[in-house]
Amino acid sequence: MSFHPEMDYAPARFHRSERKLAEAGEAFAYTAENQAKFDGIVTRYPADQRKSAILYALYLVQQQQGYITGASMRFVAGQIGCTAAEVEDVVSYYTMFYTKPVGKYVLNVCRTLSCALLGAERVTEELCGKLGIHPGQTTPDGEFTVIEVECLGACDRAPVVMVNDDWHERLAPEKAAAFVDDIKERGRAAFTGCHLHVEKK
Amino acid sequence: MAFEPVLTNHVREPNSFTLDFYLRNARGYEGLRKALTLKPGDIIDQVKASGLRGRGGAGFPTGLKWQFVLKDTPKPKYIACNADESEPGTFKDHVLMERNPHLLIEGCAIGCYAIGAKIAYIYIRGEFYHVQETLERAIEEAYRAGFLGKNILGSGFDCDVYVHRGAGAYEAGEETALIESLEGKRAQPRIKPPFPAVAGLYQCPTAVNNVETLCNVPLIVLNGPEWFAGLGPEKNGGPKLYCISGHVKRPGVYEASMHTTLRELIYGDQYAQGMLDGKKFKAIIPGGSSVPILLDKDLDTPASFDHIQKAGSLLGSAGLIVMDDSVCMVWLAMNLLHFYRHESCGKCTPCREGGDWLYKLLQRVENGEGRAKDIDLLFGVASNIVGKTLCAFGDAAATPVLTTLNLFRHEFEAHVKEGRCTLPAPWRAKQPVMAH
Q1: Which of A12, B159, B256, B432 has its CA 20 to 30 A from that of B112?
Q2: Cα angle value A113/A116/A122 (rounded, 5°)
Q3: Which residue range forms the structural domain that includes residue A146?
Q4: Is A8 among the domain residues?
Q5: Which of A7, A44, A52 lies at the smallest CB-CB distance from B183?
Q6: Phi then psi dihedrals of residue B9, to 5 deg
Q7: Interface probe with B: pick from A44, A48, A117, most Cβ of B within 10 Å
């Protein structure tokens, strides 16, 4: 059934009846340090608008345990003073929150036009070929995840890859496999960083 | 008269992001000092007289936007600075925040003073973590030096500036969706009216301004509205940042007056220096991925809001994506619809379902499985999205399809007729990209 005589609705995998609740995972609470950070950020917003700090609260969860579980959503709901459903509503919308474990290095390859014009599709192919996974998957050793993302806002340094919160610019497809080896060897030192940081050169 | 950059003149110098550098080299915070001696209404009048138009995409006069912010209200007022720079092909605010953050902070403070707000939130996209670090350091410096906080420069005016990190949502760049996201909800647009100037953040009067827009404000206060208006064509005054990417020799952010033509921006020595590998120019998207394509015959158009509109496109966010003749236009539409399908917030049915339908149709045509009637079907679906959504996203999503069909219909027909992509390029995926 569809409004359009020629086109179907999106496939059933999007249907809510197919949807699984987030796994509860282990009991969760912030470390003392993260709790202090959260309590500090909340003061930036009016006292009756604690919900504004929800994205920050979720980033803290993700920093602490790598991804966001049902238990941690409940914890955040308690911190914010809203329902767990409201927290899950937010988590499920934003692409930078993970509800499953991801690799130590998350390779976010920009796939939008400017990067694609300079070979981003090939970069993804090379990275996935090297790691033996498909986009969206994590290597069995838990080291690498490859995700195709939309425009990262560095189109003049295409193709761009964001690794966790760091940037690597101008990754030519033919250098992609060597880039993976380089990360294994040197960790964060393998990334070019943002070209605007002229001080670091 | 040669144009001298004023927003980005120091951005390539070491430590240009520090307060010390800003005070020594760029008349730092003099605009704020001067603004605090004026009446708030006078600042709004100056911004109006300068003709400053919003740099985020719509080109709406900033002075008017500020004037609309309700004056007589017991509620607090806010400035929400839109730093969710996510329009494909746009990366100008990135440079400003990374290399000249104090100019933005000064602009926020003057803006707050002008509209009677005490807090400005800078909503920055989650992917700009390294930019956020620079920005937060700069804000700390400004607090320590007394340019932010209580009783700024002894004037009795209080102002706080905070950075708010988004988490990956293109739609958060729409002003009401940005406000929703700031409130801790999904970034989905609201029904307008009421406009943010009346009921924005926390239902209080709010001005939502782009980073580049606010960066122009200190310059207007310092140098006067006539100076600003005189930099460009009528109603298109001031300096403008152009982001050039794609198949050019020297992609990057270039500051120019809006007299500059598209051809100069692509081929000029001080700009992008021509096509990559000497290939032939095919098409340009002049204002971020949401605007219609222009061709070689349009390149002598000055890159101003009004001139580009007259030529049949929009300046938008001034993200110029240049393409050589290896680009298949069906593939281009498919690439962009992948973006719009993914980023649609899902609130309005025409955009949510239509975007998905368009992507599937384009994929079918691109993979050589298209039927002759798919071309009209594409047109029909796209036309039925336009004007039927709460925000401009729907129109933006339909544009790549409508503009490629309008200018390159023969490529679609060739795909259907030959049952394959007629213009494969070596820089594209070896395996056809599957929907996921």
Answers
A1: B256
A2: 160
A3: 105-200
A4: no
A5: A52
A6: -65, -25
A7: A117
List alpha helices for B38-145, DSSP H.
40-50, 62-68, 92-99, 101-115, 129-144
Q: What is the DSSP letter of A22?
A: P
- Say yes or no for a CB contact (<8 Å) between A112 and B185: no
User: Do A130 and A161 have their domain in common?
Assistant: yes
pLDDT in tens, chain B (436 residues): 578 999 999 999 999 999 999 999 999 999 999 999 999 999 999 999 999 999 998 899 999 999 999 888 999 999 999 999 999 999 999 999 999 999 999 999 999 999 999 999 999 999 999 999 999 999 999 999 999 999 999 999 999 999 999 999 999 999 999 999 999 999 999 999 999 999 999 999 999 999 999 999 999 999 999 999 999 999 999 999 999 999 999 999 999 999 999 999 999 999 999 999 999 999 999 999 999 999 999 999 999 999 999 999 999 999 999 999 999 999 999 999 999 999 999 999 999 999 999 999 999 999 999 999 999 999 999 999 999 999 999 999 999 999 999 999 999 999 999 999 999 999 999 876 554 4
Name the closest residue on chain A to residue B129, using Cα atoms.
A165
Q: Which of A42, A58, A93 is the last residue of a domain?
A: A93
Inspect the interface and report whether the beta carbons of A93 and B186 lie closer than 8 Å: yes
Q: What is the DSSP letter of B296?
A: G
| Residues A160 and A112 both lie in one domain | yes
Q: Which residues of B, range 291-350, sit inside 8 Å of A by Cβ?
A: 319, 321, 323, 327, 332, 335-336, 338-339, 342-343, 345, 349
- Whichever domain contains A175, its CATH number is 3.40.30.10
- Per the listing, tokens 């004007």 go with B387
| C-alpha–C-alpha distance, residues A61 and B21, integer Å | 37
Q: How far apart are CA A189 and CA A198, in angstroms?
A: 16
What is the count of residue pairs from A and B with beta carbons less than 8 Å apart? Answer: 190
Alpha-carbon distance A190 to nearest alpha carbon in chain B (angstroms): 16
Q: Which of A9, A149, A155 sits opposite B353 (nearest CB)?
A: A9
Angstrom CA distances, A54 to A80, A100, B90, stand at 7, 19, 28
A2 occurs within a structural domain: no
Quote the pTM value.
0.95
Question: Structurally, how many domains does chain A consist of?
Answer: 2
Of the candidates B395, B401, B392, the residue with the CA atom closest to the CA atom of residue B360: B401
Name the closest residue on chain A to residue B345, using Cα atoms: A93
- What distance in Å separates the CA atoms of residue B4 and residue A136, rounded to the nearest whole number? 46
Taking CB atoms and an 8 Å cutoff, what residues of chain A touch B183?
49, 51-52
Of A10, A55, A90, nearest to B165 by CB-CB distance is: A55
Give the SS3 label for residue A125. helix
Which CATH number characterizes residue A69's domain? 1.10.10.1590
Report which of B274, B120, B89 is spatially closest to residue B208, judged by C-alpha positions: B120
Q: How large is the ipTM?
A: 0.94
Using CB atoms, which residue from A44, A108, A113 is nearest to B336?
Answer: A113
DSSP-based three-state secondary structure for A63: helix
Alpha-carbon gap, residue B49 to B46, rounded angstroms:
5
